[in-house]
Amino acid sequence: YLTVSIEPLPPVVVGDAVTLKCNFKTDGKMREIVWYRVTDGGTIKQKIFTFDAMFSTNFSQMENYRKREDLVYQSTVRLPEVRISDNGPYECHVGIYDRATREKVVLASGNVFLNVMAPPTSISVLAADTPAPFSRYQAQNFTLVCVVSGGKPAPLVYFKRDGEPIEATPLPEPPAGASSWAPRSLLHRDLDDTKVPKSLAADGEPGMGNPFPTVDPPRGLAAERDAVTESIPETVVSREFPRWVHMAEPIYYFRHTHAPVSDGTVEARATLTWTLNPQIDNEALFSCEVKHPALSMPMQSEVTLVAPKGPKITMTPTRARVGDTVRILVQGFQNEVFPEPLFTWTRVGSRLLDGSAEHDGKELVLERVPAELNGSMYRCTAQNPLGSTDTHTRLIVFENPNIPRGPEDSNGSLPGHCGFRFILALTLTVILELT
After folding, report:
1. CA contacts within 13 A on the Cβ side of 294
2. Residue 217 contacts by C-beta under 8 Å, 6 or more apart in sequence?
3. What is the pTM of this model?
4. Each residue's pLDDT tens digit, 176-231
5. How far apart are CA 304 and CA 336, in angstroms?
6. Contact call for residues 149 and 121 (beta carbons, < 8 A)
7. 209 contacts: CB under 8 Å, gap ≥ 6
8. What's the domain count of the chain?
9. Which of 305, 338, 369 is the last residue of a domain?
């Protein structure tokens, strides 16, 4: 007579203490109690503890450095601090001697599944496809991505706007491209007529039914920015917001995916996509919240959509001399900007020193500046989908006393003139010898 039973265990959290108790009844003489951990879908049974009734001893088959378990009352195993790796099925095998012959052992077993949960360890919200240029003449889709790592099982992820839950349309499959997101139909786009020529602004008035062009910016605007006669003070900061009007509340699209990680946890990703309206979305607070059975309260991360404002630009060295390498750097803004802006450098009325029309990045490096750059104006445009800001700074180049200047040398390139005079003198000498 031998029966073995194990009571089912509720899910436990990483770090908890767990007791695996093997309940058995028998009227025979005990031989042994063995605990197994079952892996690979039941194909492998790893012996973890043995109680030998013949010698009244118990010992662990685990490595010494992993001996975290204790055998209590000969049939109960206690795990002081469970790990994710402890997740899985366990079996308790009890053996007694056969009454007919002591050479045979009768076995019975019971099993239990240990479900180990782990709360998420990190959560972050970021913008997809940034930094990237935007067009203030065309409504664009915007996507927030919430990444939650370290959880087991997969958590429940949802978004809020200004503290209110967002009702979103679920998307089972990711979009094939930007065109697969159906944009909202726009009645008109109200543009800032201080930036756009009147003839172009009139096309976008309400009720006209003619949307504003969605291609390149109007030539009038490009000409205004690139004119050589542009009058700009030493440092100018201007802000520019795209403004168009939606006739209804935005429609949000939501997608949730999760992928298993090698350590047994799950990485969850949730995306929220909508047609951005900078007029109402600027300074809007979006939060990603996570519910998980291992958490006593929701976990959250939040961001505020903000256009760049008040760039802080530094130039080193502060007194640039001919031949110096000048670095113009954007150190930050007067506000917290999200998403990350895209920086574009241009030279007003001309090309950059390397001959390019523009340069992308926070820093503009001018190698060995010549005297001709004295007084040149540089524009840094910082833009994100919420708006843009332009900052102009003027480069002043001083003479370099370490570079000698000849009377006919206006740009410090003395070696070139010396070479010319040498060739001229040599030519005259050859002519005289020939004559």
Report:
1. 21
2. 135, 137
3. 0.69
4. 443 333 333 333 333 333 333 333 333 333 333 333 333 333 333 233 333 333 44
5. 8
6. yes
7. none
8. 3
9. 305
